[in-house]
Amino acid sequence: MMDTQFTQSRPPSPSPRHRSQVLWQIAVPLGVFILGILALAVLSVIRSSTDFEAGLHWANISAIFIITPILTFSFITLIILALLIYGLARLLKVIPAASLKVWSYFEIAKNYVRLASDQVTRPIVSANAWARQGQTLAGRVFHPRKAGQPSSEKVDI
After folding, report:
1. Whole-number pLDDT of residue 134
2. Sign of the C-alpha dihedral, residues 64, 40, 25, 12?
3. Where are the domains positioned within the chain?
4. Which residues of the chain have pLDDT under 70?
5. Under 8 Å CB-to-CB from 44, ≥6 apart: which residues?
6. How far is 141 from 149, CA to CA, in rounded Å?
7. Which residue of 48, 60, 68, 131 is most buried, as measured by CB atoms within 10 A?
8. CB atoms within 10 A of CB 40
9. SS3 108
């Protein structure tokens, strides 16, 4: 058997160049954006505390910035829904004719399957029929029924 040793290896540490890229490409822009949002929030609070109409103005601007993306995505969803409804309406005009054609092919296939199954089972059915006829004939020849006696054979109805 093989002896296997598992050693824990630490992932290689990122190079100083990579750390510098992460700092300048991710951390600094994110920090500037967050500081800008905080500055706008502080300015809006300062302006609205001194003047009611300025606060109302900033509230309207904020509402516009909140509503615009929601409205845009809702409009895109509405367009997609309208296109799906239009496509489904067109598809429903085509489906009855296509389904009739498919149904006719299934009917043809059903007839072929029925013919094939009849041909496959014909020898078995005819052999069983000949055997029954032979049993009936043998029974009548060797055990004839006397007049007035009920038949001992069971009749399936």
Report:
1. 85
2. negative
3. 51-141
4. 1-8, 12, 145-157
5. 55, 58, 62
6. 16
7. 48
8. 13
9. helix
CA angle 108, 109, 115 (to 5 degrees): 95
- Token pair for 46: 């300062």
How distant is the alpha carbon of residue 12 from its chain centre?
43
| Region class of 6: left (phi > 0), else alpha (psi between -120 and 50), else beta | beta
Q: Which has the closest alpha carbon to 95: 105, 85, 83, 103? A: 103
State how far the alpha carbon of 26 is from the alpha carbons of 39, 40, 118, 122, in Å. Answer: 20, 22, 77, 81
What is the model's pTM? 0.38
Tokens of 144: 């004839």
Q: Which two tokens stand for residue 44?
A: 């809006």
**Helix, strand or coil for residue 106?**
helix
Residue 50 burial (10 A CB sphere; 0-12, 13-18, 19+): exposed
Tell me the one-letter amino acid at 114.
R
pLDDT computed for residue 140 by the predictor: 81
